[in-house]
Design a protein that fits this description.
By secondary structure, this protein is mostly helical. It is 67% helix and 0% strand.
């Protein structure tokens, strides 16, 4: 069992359980992102767009930080799973923006072999002129 896991990690193969985990993580991320976004919008409406973080109460700041931490934790799990299952592996880390990987990357493109082109144009990460191909 352990040997199979190491082989799968080394060669970027995915299993049905990985697909299930991918779908669950993306569903959880969408909910966490929306909760964080709704909270931010409510605070912007209450305090205005400029410096809303400075004007909100300690309780509101704590709530905002907890929502953002939950969203980021789920997002990190998505990236970790992607690096483990994708034939492109760690190339994703510097070849695409994290927000796009966490929210828009499809399972089919995540597991697509290196020698096949992706079905989408990956947005360029910060400081690059093009995204991963």
């Amino acid at each position: 069992m352990k040997r199979r896991h190491l082989l799968r990690r080394r060669h970027g193969h995915s299993l049905a359980s990985d697909k299930t985990r991918w779908d669950k993580l993306h569903a959880d991320y969408a909910k966490a992102y929306q909760a964080s976004r709704d909270n931010e919008i409510a605070l912007r409406v209450k305090y205005g767009d400029g410096n809303w973080r400075m004007w909100c109460s300690r309780g509101e700041k704590t709530r905002t930080e907890k929502l953002e931490a939950r969203r980021d934790k789920i997002g990190d799990k998505i990236v970790d799973l992607l690096v483990r299952i994708s034939p492109r592996g760690e190339a994703w880390l510097s070849g695409a923006p994290a927000f796009w990987i966490r929210g828009d990357l499809t399972w089919e493109d995540a597991i697509r072999p290196k020698n096949e082109p992706l079905s989408v144009v990956v947005p360029a990460p910060w400081g690059a002129d093009r995204g991963l191909t």
